Amino acid sequence: MDLVPALDEPLKQPLKSVLGPATAKVMAEHLGLHTVGDLLHHYPRRYEERGQLTHLADLPMDEHVTVVAMVADARLHTFASAKAPRGKGQRLEVTITHGSGRLQLVFFGSGVHKPHKELLPGTRAMFAGKVSVFNRRLQLAHPAYELLRGDSDETVETWAGALIPIYPATAKLESWKIGKALQTVLPAAQEAIDPLPEGLREGRGLVSLPEALLKIHRPHTKADIEDARARLKWDEAFVLQVALARRRHADAQLPAVARRPKPDGLLTAFDDRLPFTLTEGQQKVSKEIFDDLATEHPMHRLLQGEVGSGKTMVALRAMLATVDAGGQAAMLAPTEVLAQQHHRSVVEMMGELAEGGMLGGAEHSTKVVLLTGSMGAAARRQALLDLVTGEAGIVIGTHALIEDKVQFHDLGLVVVDEQHRFGVEQRDALRGKGKQPPHLLVMTATPIPRTVAMTVFGDLETSVLDQLPAGRSPIASHVVPAADKPHFLARAWERVREEVEGGHQAYVVCPRIGDEEDDPKKSGKKKSPEDEAEKRPPLAVLDVADQLAKGPLQGLSVEVLHGRMHPDDKDAVMRRFAAGDTDVLVATTVIEVGVNVPNATAMVIMDADRFGVSQLHQLRGRVGRGSAPGLCLLVTEMPEASAARQRLTAVASTLDGFELSRIDLEQRREGDVLGQAQSGARTSLRVLAVIEDEEVIAEAREEAAAVVAADPELTGLPGLRTALDALLDEEREQYLEKG
Would you say 146 and 158 are in contact if contact means Cβ atoms under 8 Å apart? Predict the structure, then answer.
C-alpha cells in the first residue's frame, strides 16, 4: 500500500517546491521534517492567546521563546565602545507588555534601524528569541519579530483566531514561519487517510484525522485543541500497540520445544541444596515461567524485580529446568564485569551441581561456562566446544554469544539481563541459534511503570517480584545538605566510622574518577542552570579518597574502585572488600549492578544530585544486603528549592522502586526514559504522555489485540497499514542509524 501521495510529497523538490528551498532545507536539517505529512504532524507545543505574554516568571532561561505582546515604549541610546569609540554605538531598548508583565528587548548596532521604525508604542507583534539576563532583568537580545497589523488579508486570516499556535522552533526558523508553512500545506490534511477503524473511532466519539489536524493547527476554541489532542493521542497509542500486538501474534505462531523439568533432576537437586525457602513472590513468578516453558511456542517474558529481590535465583531455576529437559540455557549480560559476576554467583549457588563431567561433580550436574570477548584463545575454544557438544548446559556471557562462530547443541532458553541495553535485533540473532526459537526471559532491575512496560516492552508478558527475600534489611535514607548545614556532612563521616567500628563496611560513591584529561569536546557541552550555579566539576573518586584517608576517615583502610582500572586490579580490590579487609570503598557507579557484600551497611553518595533517580535507587540497593540495617546518605550542595533537591528528597522518602520510577518519569521528558529502551519509532510519541495517558494506552492495547486477532494482516484496514508502514519505516531507519 503506497503512502498517501499528497502527504508524501517532499517539502523540497526541484520543480514545484511546496515551500521555499531555504525553508525546506532548515526544516529537514533542524526539525527532521521532509514531507507534507511530516509537517502536518509537527504539532504546536502550546498556544498563545492574543495579547497574552507568557508569564514572565515562567520564561525559561536560555530557551527560544515566542511571545505575543504590545510595545509600551522604545528608547534609542548612543554609547562609546571599542568598535564605536566616538560614542556612535547605538542600542535600542524596547519594553513590551501584555497588561501585567513587562519584558525588555534589546537591539544593537546597525540592527536598530528597522525595529526603531517599526516597533512604535502601541504596535502589536509576536517576538521570538533566546531569554537571557542582563542587570538582573530578563531580556531578549535581537529577537525576531512579526508585526500583527491586521491590514493584509493573510495576516488577518492567519491571526484572526484568538489562539496562536506556538511551534517547537529553532534559532534558524521561528515559530510563525513554521505556522505560515503549515498554512500552505493545511489543505492537504483533507487527504489524510484515517488509521483508526471506523467502529473504534465512532465508538469512542473521536473526530476524524483531517478534522483533528485542522483543529490542532488552527483552533478557534480551547475545545478544538482538546478534541484534536484526544484524537491524535489515540492514533499514537493505537498504531504503536498494533505494531506490538502483531509482533506478539507472530511470536505466538512460532514453534518451540516445550521444556518441562524432570521430576528428580537437576532442579530438584538444586532446590534441596538451598539454605532458605523461596519467597511467595519467587514461587509465583517461577510458576508463571515454568508454565510458559511447558508450551510449544516461545515464552517472551519480562521479569522485573527490585534490587535484591532474587531475580537471579528465579532465572537460574528456569535455566536448570531447561537443562533438565535436555536443552541449554544462555544468559546475556551487558558488560564483561557483570557476566563474570553472574558466572561466579551461579557457580557458587550451584556448588558441585556446576561440575558436570568433573571428578566430584554431582550425579545430576552440568557444566557452566563463561564466554566474553576478552577471553584467551584456548579458554574460548574450550567454551565453544563445550557449547556445541552440549557438555555445557549453561553459558553466561556478553554480546560475544551472538557472534556467528558460537554454535549451540540445543539452545532452549535465553535470559537477558538489563534489557534496555539490548535491542530487538540482538534478540532475533540469538533466536536464530536454536533449532527452533528458544524461550526468552528478560530481567530488569529498573522498575518500569506499567504504562512504560506496555509501550516499550509491549511484546513481552510481565512478571513482577516486589517482595524482598527474608534476611534483607531495611535501608534508611537521608539527604545531607552540605552547603546549608556543613555539620551534617561531618556527622555523616562520624556515622561511617561508627559502622566500621561495629564491624561493618561502607561505600562512598562519586560521579567522576578524577584522572580525566580535560576534553574540550565535553567542556563545550551546554550546561544546565543548576550546573552553572555550581561552576565546580563533580567530585572525583581519587580526590575524595585522598581527602577522607587524610581527614575524617584517617586510620581506616580506604581503597578506590573505578571503571578505568585494569580488570585484575578491579577484581583484587573487590575481593579484598568482600573479604572484609577494606573498611571503606570509594568508587564510581561501577558498583551499581551486581556487587554483593552483605557486610557493607553504609553508603555515602557525593554530589547525589548528579545521579538519576533510578541510579540512586540501584546504588542504594548495594547496602542492607545482610542482617544489619542499611544506611544511605545523599550528599548535595543544591539549595532546598531546587528540582534536584526535591528529587533527592523523593528518593530518601521511599524504598518503592515503582513509585520512584514514576517520579523519575514525571520529572524527565519521556524521551529520556524511553530513550535507550526503545527501538526507534517509539520516540515518535508527540502528544501521548506515557504516565498521564495510562488509560488511553491500556484501552488502545485491548483494541489493538482485538483488531489483530480478527485480521492479523490488516487486509480490511488500509489506512492502519499505511500508518504502520510509516511507523516501522521510521523504526528501521533508526536501527540503521544506531548501527
Answer: no
Instruction: Give the pLDDT of residue 46.
Output: 82
- Type of residue found at 638: M
Task: Output the pLDDT for position 729.
Answer: 65
The rounded distance, in Å, linking the Cα atoms of 570 and 584 is 15
Phi, psi at 314, each rounded to 5°: -65, -45
Give the pLDDT confidence score for residue 16 in this predicted structure: 46
> What are the backbone angles phi and psi of residue 204, rounded to the nearest 5°?
-100, 5
CA atoms of 307 and 330, how far apart (whole Å): 22
Nearest CA-CA partner of 317 in 273, 255, 363: 273
Asked whether the beta carbons of 392 and 323 are under 8 A apart, the reply is: no
- The amino acid occupying position 16 is K
Reply yes or no on whether the pLDDT at 583 is more than 70: yes
Nearest of 420, 428, 431 to residue 453 by alpha carbon: 420
Radius of gyration of the chain (CA): 30
In terms of Cα–Cα distance, which of 623, 641, 644 is closest to 633?
623
Residues composing the chain: 739
Cα–Cα nearest to 53, from 41, 44, 42, 66: 66
Mean pLDDT is lowest, of 287-301, 480-494, 507-521, 525-539, for: 525-539
Evaluate whether 640 touches 628 at the Cβ level (below 8 Å).
no
* C-alpha cell at position 523: 567542556
Q: 117 burial class (0-12, 13-18, 19+ CB within 10 angstroms)?
A: exposed
One-letter amino acid at 116 equals H
Residue 530 has pLDDT above 60, yes or no: no
Q: Is the pLDDT of residue 643 over 80?
A: no
Listed in sequence order, the residues at least 6 apart from 472 whose beta carbon sits closer than 8 Å to its beta carbon are 308, 624, 625
Beta strand 137-141 with 102-108 is: parallel
Asked whether 43 and 232 are in contact (CB, 8 A), the reply is yes
What DSSP designation does 708 have?
Answer: H
Contact 352, 360 (CB under 8 A): yes
Take residue 17 and report the three cell numbers written for it.
517546491
Phi, psi (deg, nearest 5) at residue 79: -155, 160
**CA-closest candidate to residue 451, choices 701, 704, 690:** 690
Q: Tell me the three-class secondary structure of 69-127, residue by residue.
A: EEEEEEEEEEECCCCCCCCCEEEEEEEEECCCCEEEEEEEHHHHHHHHHHCCCCCEEEE
Place of cell 497509542: 237
First to last CA, the chain: 28
C-alpha cell at 501: 567500628
Please, what is the Cα angle at 267 between 395 and 314, to 5 degrees? 70
Contact 420, 677 (CB under 8 A): yes
Q: Which residues contact 704 (CB under 8 A, 6 or more apart)?
A: 238, 241, 242, 244, 245
Reduced to 3 states, what is the DSSP secondary structure of residue 240? Answer: helix
Residue pLDDT, tens place only, 111-142:
888 888 989 998 888 887 778 877 777 788 88
Nearest residue to 417 via CA among 321, 342, 328, 345: 342
| Structural element, H or E, at residue 199 | helix 198-203
pLDDT digit string (tens) for 165-191?
Answer: 888 777 777 777 888 888 888 888 888
